[in-house]
Amino acid sequence: MIVTLTANPSIDRTVVLDTELVRGGVHRARASVSDPGGKGVNVARVLTASGVQAMAVLPASEHDPLLEALSDKGVRYCAVPTGALARTNITVSEPGGVTTKINEPGAELSEAARTELFETVVDLGRDATWVALSGSLPPGIPVGWYGELVAALKSTTACKVAVDTSDAPLLALAASFPRSAPDLIKPNSEELAQLTGADAENLERAAAAGDPTAAIDASRILLQRGVGAVLATLGSAGAVLVTQEGAWFASPPKIDAISTVGAGDSSLAGYILADIERCPPADLIRRAVAYGTAATALPGTTLPTPEQTRPDSVTVEAVQSPNSHNPQPSPSSKTLTS
């Protein structure tokens, strides 16, 4: 079983435009769709669609439409009761794959709900192969909560732990490395830059030109701090996977991007799917990029099924970075010190 945690779930509403978004203008939508959302929910949806047993853990009131939406998708869930409905996140999708997101903060969790959520994840983790902690934290949860949860899972369970978050929760997690270092962390280029002081635009630009060494060197800084593996997604340039055994760079096929919503979550799900099949590293990143690319080619919050992915179209190469034995963090990577 794969357990996913979405501490700040949502109903994701996507509005599709035929023209570019104009600030202050009036637009007529071509289509709109609502789906159960939140990063961990998205991972669970992809896993479920791929025939893998997944359990989505989330806070939600008993009659929240989010739970009905999960049931409609066939996703198993374990809901910790709260007194409020899930937030609504709005995505405006323009031609060419440009998306604008407006995310509500979410309802504040009480201390009792926060404790129950924590204990539920740890309890389910004892029988899980992977636990994926994904997304933002709602009001009422301290920014260091993910770090405490990772440490608890590492000390009481045998499952692997993946984390995909950003901003203050990500920096707080890194500040408590190696105690809270997960088996896998999945930053995008901006998040990798937040953690290491690298230049996010340079990471993607260099990778797009066929040179992923900057992203690999930045990822190795996290390995030095105790992280087991780094899957860094670099937009249309692809992704790098860096472990103690080596580094791999995957380039996706050229596609017509429609929506980037859920692409990173699909990549994480693809990686987990390959890992539970005991695939080698090259195939781990191949599957991750195939799923992320498939998500980008789908409209709105639609997530890929295995039939919509094309792993054979993803090019993977092993990379030996010149700085592989001694990567040096930049001065602004002080956020990693505890």
Can you put this structure into words, describing what you see?
This protein is globular. It contains 10 helices and 14 strands. The chain has a 10-stranded mixed beta sheet with strand order 5-4-1-8-9-10-11-12-13-14, with helices on both faces. Mean pLDDT is 92; it is low at 325-338. It is 34% helix and 22% strand. It is of the alpha/beta class and 338 residues long. The chain starts with a strand and ends in a 20-residue tail after the last strand. The protein has helices spanning 39-49, 65-72, 111-125, 145-156, 167-175, 189-196, 200-208, 213-224, 263-276, 281-296; strands at residues 2-6, 10-16, 31-37, 54-59, 76-80, 87-93, 99-103, 130-134, 160-164, 184-185, 229-233, 239-243, 246-251, 315-318. α3 runs parallel beside α4 (145-156) and α9 (263-276) packs antiparallel against α10.
Compute the gyration radius: what is it?
19 Å
How many strands, what sense, and barrel or not for the largest sheet? Answer: 10 strands, mixed
What portion of residues belong to β-strands? 15-25%
Q: Note the gap between the termini.
A: 33 Å
List unreliable stretches of 5+ residues. 325-338
Q: Label the overall shape.
A: globular
- List SSEs in N-to-C order: EEEHEHEEEHEHEHEHHHEEEHHE
Q: How many beta-strand elements?
A: 14
Helix count? 10
Give the helix level as a range of percent: 25-40%
Structure class: alpha/beta
Mean pLDDT: 92
Instruction: Write out the strand line-up for the largest beta sheet, numbering strands in chain order.
Output: 5-4-1-8-9-10-11-12-13-14
